[in-house]
Structure formats: C-alpha cells, structure tokens
Amino acid sequence: MLQSLSPRIDPPRSTNISRQAPIGELNPRLTPVWEAVASMTFEEASQRLIRLARDHGGVVTAAQVERDGELSRDIELVSAAARALDGSTNVFGTPRASAEGGWFPFEELRFTALPSAS
C-alpha cells in the first residue's frame, strides 16, 4: 500500500509583541542607539560645514572638522554631506590621501561662494 508522505507544517505560533520587555528592562546597561545618540540630520551637517567655511574664510580643513565635537558624533553622515557639497557648483574638495589617517574624506573643502547666512 502506498502512503502519501506529506511534510507536516505547524502553523506559526502567535507572538504578543506587547508582552515583550523593553531593552532597558532586560539589561539596564543597554540603551537603544536611537536614544543614546542625539544625531543631526543631513541638512544640519551640511549647514554646520557651511558655517565652518564662513567662519574660516571659505575653507574647511579636515583638522577643523575632526576637532568639532558636534560633527565627529556622526562621521558617516558628515562625510556624506561633505561629498554632496563637493559635488555642488561652488565647492571644490581636495581628496585626502588614505595614508594621512582621519575620517574626513577631504584635506579641505574650498567654497568659492557661500550661501547667505540664515
């Protein structure tokens, strides 16, 4: 006699997500990243770089950016903002040699024209 062998598939168990403990209750030393870091937006990072340029005669150096505590908190976002500025009409970036170290992708950003202060 032939018997059909079909795999038994159990239905998914329901999970009541509202009953799961928040991260802090499981381990009070853990703080979710979104609560631990007060990050800036892309626009704020761009404006901060422009403000630095305005304060330093239209030139922003890697050393200035890397010393800035506010900008150093989110290096990926600030690097992306710097690359976007470099791609604009009035900003010219000098790429940084990888052997120099540091995280900012440019040796300097030179602004030939700065937007008016708001």
Q: What are the SSEs and their pairings?
A:
Layout: H1 23-26, H2 33-36, H3 42-55, E1 59-61, H4 62-67, H5 69-72, H6 75-86, E2 91-95, E3 106-111
Antiparallel strand pairs: 1-3, 2-3
- Strand/helix succession: HHHEHHHEE
Uncertain stretches of 5 or more adjacent residues: none
Q: What composes the largest sheet?
A: 3 strands, antiparallel
Any idea what the radius of gyration is? 25 Å
Walk across the major sheet and give the strand order: 1-3-2
Count the beta strands. 3
Q: What do the pLDDT scores average to?
A: 80
Assign an overall shape.
Answer: elongated
Helix proportion range:
25-40%
What is the helix tally?
Answer: 6
Percent of residues in β-strands: 5-15%
SS-based class: alpha+beta
How far apart are the termini? Answer: 85 Å
Task: Offer a quick outline of the entry.
The protein is α+β, with helices and mostly antiparallel strands and 118 residues long. The chain has helices spanning 23-26, 33-36, 42-55, 62-67, 69-72, 75-86; strands at 59-61, 91-95, 106-111.
Task: For the structure shown, list the relevant keywords.
118 residues, alpha+beta, 6 helices, 37% helix, 12% strand
Can you put this structure into words, describing what you see?
- The chain contains 6 helices and 3 strands; from the N terminus they run αααβαααββ.
- The chain has a 3-stranded antiparallel beta sheet.
- The longest helix is centred in the middle third of the chain and has 14 residues.
